[in-house]
């Protein structure tokens, strides 16, 4: 027993395995605790577009809301422009005060309705925060309607004084919220698909890269370092296409939502999976198997900074900026656009190609500066006379 324990602990792989278990705990604890610290205090970084088409009460309310809301507000004159920004995730919600708002709010036969649009093609937390904000905004408008000078606004609409006063007094119960969803997500299982695909793809690429590195160490002396690099690149490309086909097919078979179609999802997953492969193998080419520590850090950082779990708008400037340099950010953004709807993914594809090209270039430089290992000696040929 003691001899087996001593022999086992003398193996480098045993020591690496124990260190890796410790490093997972340390890296994830440090990164996640620092990245998510203060997230709930940064809701002011979320953006709401306010579109007002009502020249009376709506004008007064939009100005007041822009000053008092605990979010960054942008006054937009065109509703179509605001909705396009919402679709591209420039805004987290669009608030629209229609042209007939004052008229309906003052009418005994109608109610003044404020329209809200929320883009569900985002982390689930966005919908929760913005739905609560819409209800709160409507409640605030109702509660402050009379005190904020509504009577004067209605009197300016050439109403009799008695009618204006009655309308002002009743307005606190006559404003409703019409909340609409853009790019709706069909269930929590679909909501989690972007994170799942990124997590499965990067972990798979990371483990695959570790095994490729061990194979490289075993065959490079005979095959040559540049031939080994070329073979790994070919295997990466073929594996990315086939693995992405399996992953995308399983999501489809299990009820996945594909707003832009199966083919788009397959091709895009192939692209970001291939990028993950080259990025993870870059660290292994630079540092050998010790590069796995960098990949573990990269895994943790990408999970918190990509926007798959918590909106990137709620993170600190450090993690937001770091996320712009990492492939998972663009993988999550493209996944949400393809799965649920949104803007074009050309920008995400271009960013992934740039990151991939950078990783390939760094790998090539690392290989160029490494010495070619000595070829293993071939067994000497035994003369036939001695064989007898």
Structure notes:
The chain is an alpha/beta fold and 388 residues long. The protein folds into 2 domains: 40-182, abc type-2 transporter like domain (abc type-2 transporter like fold); 188-369, no CATH class. It has helices spanning 2-9, 12-35, 57-68, 79-87, 101-106, 124-144, 150-155, 161-170, 188-191, 193-223, 225-253, 262-287, 291-305, 317-323, 327-340, 346-369, 384-387, and strands spanning 47-52, 72-75, 93-97, 112-119, 175-182. The chain has a 5-stranded mixed beta sheet, with helices on both faces. The longest helix is centred in the middle third of the chain and has 31 residues, at 193-223. The radius of gyration is 29 Å and the shape is elongated. The model is unreliable at 146-150, 374-382 and 384-388 (pLDDT under 50).
Can you tag this structure with a few keywords?
single chain, 388 residues, alpha/beta, abc type-2 transporter like fold, 64% helix, disordered C terminus, transmembrane
Quick structural overview:
This protein is α/β, with parallel strands linked by helices. It contains 17 helices and five strands. It starts with a helix and ends with a helix.
